[in-house]
Design brief:
Layout: H1 6-15, H2 18-23, E1 29-31, E2 34-37, E3 49-52, E4 57-60, E5 66-67, H3 69-77, H4 81-91, H5 109-126, H6 132-140, H7 145-150, E6 154-156, H8 161-168, H9 173-178, E7 182-185, E8 188-191, E9 196-202, E10 208-214, E11 224-226, H10 242-252, E12 254-258, H11 261-269, E13 275-277, H12 285-292, E14 297-300, H13 306-321, E15 326-328, H14 337-344, H15 346-354, H16 359-366, H17 376-390, H18 396-410, H19 414-435, H20 445-457, H21 461-470, H22 477-493, H23 498-505, H24 511-520, H25 528-556, H26 560-578
Parallel strand pairs: 12-13, 12-14, 14-15
Antiparallel strand pairs: 1-2, 2-3, 3-4, 4-5, 6-9, 7-8, 9-10, 10-11
């Protein structure tokens, strides 16, 4: 939590109206004592997020997203928790009294410091006499000084200059090799990047993890050379320019996704800052999650060649499966966005973005490739491809429009198309049902009761006291640990409410488990009778488990007298259950 005390955090949170803060980011409408708005954390079309002025929390009754003013800002703006605290503090005019350490705890501090040092060396090289030819090349490519500075463009030199400098600073060869800066051959060490223009690659948090190196002299090959995969640089975990694009994305509510680093740099250089590059033609789960965190519409703009067409379909299908809101831009004429802007200018690019098409419209064209629709077999194959694609779409209006279009364009019975689509969807449902057993196991009634008791305890101090006197302890370690955190909080602060406990949970190793309980519970009204009923059910379950355990002991016990003792123990437990576990 970076030195900020729980008391100071609570003071900031209590000084901020969650309704005022959230309404500064999205519209809220009052209905009764609560406020409602469209949830920004899933594809929401009707107001399903409730904001309670009284409890100072928000909760989406569709996706389950829950939290206080800090967690809303953290997730909405995609910033760290401590940054969210600072933002809220500024909004309410509070100056944070204690020093804040923004550095994330990481086992790779030395490596990140090294990569940053190497970046500065490359940047310095570009501004020396050795960089004159490289700067001339960059100017010819319309990469002017402002862009060179923004993207920290540098230059690697010949004659193993980098290795010589790093060796003098006592960096170990193993680390340099592991980070992809140096290579070893026959016991000798050489710079990986020599005589190339260097484009740094940052991770999602903005730390330098690798480089893309481009030759600028005709005789050098290959044209581009990237850092190898390392424990810092994992291509599938990175979106080039993500850390710079975030602020612009928040303003435009759009994120443009391109293939190459140079495409992202070119768009940014003409003022289109909300752009990231995937550095290839595939998209990983981690990259999809990073895009989701931006809560923005994705504009997919890949290269204007067959590989880009194929990648648009593959990546678009992934975005669709993950329920991202997105559209597609297919540029005409030039090979990629970089060349398109150079030839046609910024306004033409903005028009292309403005006229982005839906993924379904893209697919209607894509499925026609290499087909003669005057041929019955090709037409049948095309229709089947479209119908098969529709079965994965939940938009009933889009399905209806597409079926009508197919029927009108190719003179095919609408009823037959509708029937075939229905058959495809039935197969999908059967496949889903067949796969259900291997999906994440649902929670048991025991889990649900434990979590409901804990949820009660997070709201009021008297519920914590009831837990202590009527139950005392959970049999399961996870729930016992969460209960202990609640007990510690109450003991320390002499009170508890959900909004403040959410802040406290941020600094515990049980944050995910605690937030899972809060997100999954729907209870709005709390009463002592309700808590006592839950504790009674929990106690009965514990007693029943105890009976089952004793019965197993009886089956294994050979001594008749001991069996009788165990049976009497079961009778006593059953009597306790019948008396209401008092």
């Amino acid at each position: 939590m970076a030195f900020i005390s729980q008391e100071e955090l609570n003071h900031i949170r209590n000084s901020a109206s969650i309704v005022d803060v959230i309404s500064s980011y999205l519209p809220l409408t009052q209905k009764g004592k609560n406020y409602f708005g469209v949830c920004p954390f899933h594809e929401d079309h009707s107001p399903s997020m409730s904001v309670s002025s009284e409890k100072q929390i928000y909760k989406c009754f569709s996706c389950g997203a829950t939290g206080n003013v800090f967690t809303f800002v953290e997730n909405f703006l995609n910033v760290s928790f401590i940054e969210a605290v600072e933002i809220v503090a500024r909004q309410v005019g509070i100056s944070i009294q204690t020093p804040i350490d923004h550095k994330k705890s990481t086992p790779y501090q030395e490596e990140y410091a090294l990569m940053d040092f190497v970046l500065k060396l490359f940047q310095n090289n570009l501004n020396t006499e050795a960089g004159v030819e490289a700067i001339h090349y960059l100017k010819k490519r319309n990469l002017l000084e402002e862009t060179r500075k923004e993207f920290c463009i540098g230059l690697s030199l010949e004659n193993n200059v980098l290795y010589s400098i790093l060796k003098k600073k006592d960096y170990k060869e193993k680390m340099l090799v592991d980070l992809g800066l140096i290579q070893e051959k026959n016991g000798q060490y050489y710079d990986v990047f020599r005589n190339r223009i260097m484009f740094p690659i940052h991770n999602l948090d903005g730390q330098v993890v690798g480089f893309t190196a481009r030759c600028y002299k005709k005789e050098e090959t290959p044209k581009y050379l990237n850092t190898k995969e390392t424990y810092l640089f994992k291509k599938g975990m990175i979106l080039f320019n993500y850390h710079r694009a975030k602020d612009s994305v928040r303003l435009t509510k759009q994120i443009i996704v391109v293939e190459g680093n140079m495409d992202a740099i070119r768009l940014s250089s003409v003022g289109i800052k909300n752009v990231v590059a995937i550095m290839g033609t595939s998209l990983t789960k981690e990259q999809i999650n990073a895009l989701k965190k931006l809560h923005a519409k994705v504009i997919l703009m890949l290269d204007n060649d067959q590989a880009g067409e194929t990648a648009t379909y593959a990546i678009g299908s992934l975005l669709e499966e993950n329920h991202l809101d997105f559209s597609v831009v297919r540029l005409s004429g030039e090979k990629d966005p970089d060349e398109y802007i150079i030839k046609n200018g910024k306004e033409a690019m903005l028009d292309a973005i403005k006229n982005a098409i839906s993924f379904m419209d893209f697919k209607l064209k894509y499925f026609k490739q290499n087909k003669n629709l005057n041929e019955a077999s090709d037409l049948a194959e095309y229709i089947k491809a479209v119908l098969n694609s529709l079965k994965n779409n939940d938009d009933e209006i889009l399905k209806e429009i597409t079926l009508q279009k197919l029927s009108n364009d190719y003179n095919i019975s609408y009823a037959i198309l509708k029937e075939q689509l229905g058959e495809n969807e039935k197969k999908k449902e059967k496949k889903y049902e067949a796969s259900k057993p291997i999906v994440k196991e649902s929670k048991t009634s025991y889990d649900r009761i434990c979590e409901k008791i804990l949820y009660y305890m997070m709201h009021q101090k008297n519920f914590v006291k009831l837990y202590q006197t009527k139950l005392g302890i959970f049999p399961t370690k996870k729930y016992r640990s969460i209960a202990n955190e609640i007990l510690y909080y109450v003991e320390t602060h002499k009170t508890i409410n959900l909004a403040d406990f959410i802040t406290y949970a941020e600094n515990t190793n049980l944050k995910e488990e605690i937030m899972d309980i809060i997100n999954n519970e729907r209870e709005e009204e709390f009463s002592e009778e309700g808590m006592l009923e839950l504790l009674g059910v929990m106690k009965r379950k514990i007693k029943q488990e105890e009976i089952l355990k004793i019965k197993k002991e009886i089956q294994q016990e050979m001594d008749v007298n001991k069996k009788v003792e165990l049976l009497e123990k079961i009778a006593e437990i059953k009597m306790d259950i019948e008396e209401g576990c008092e």
